[in-house]
Amino acid sequence: MGDPMRIRAAETNGVVDVKILMKHDMESGQRKDASGKLIPAWFITMVNVKAQGKDVFNAEFGSAVSKDPFLNFKYKGSKGDKLLVSWIDLRGDKRSDEATVS
Question: The Sulphur oxidation protein SoxZ domain covers which part of the protein (predicted)?
Answer without folding.
Answer: 7-99
